[in-house]
């Protein structure tokens, strides 16, 4: 158990966690963009403006 706790405090673990969280954040932004894009094209807001 102590080995795992030491590894969680290591710089390597922090780097890996940062990469994973950044990747998830990027995927969330792409998903939001795609949903907004679909909503805009579905509503034809561009032609109404």
From TrEMBL:
Domain of life of the source: Bacteria
Which named protein is this?
A: Uncharacterized protein
To which species is this protein native? Saccharibacillus endophyticus
UniProt lineage:
Bacteria, Bacillati, Bacillota, Bacilli, Bacillales
């Amino acid at each position: 158990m102590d080995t795992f706790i030491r590894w969680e405090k290591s710089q390597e673990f922090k780097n890996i966690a940062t990469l994973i969280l950044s990747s998830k954040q990027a995927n969330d932004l792409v998903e939001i963009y795609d949903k907004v894009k679909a909503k805009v094209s579905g509503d034809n807001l561009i032609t109404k403006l």
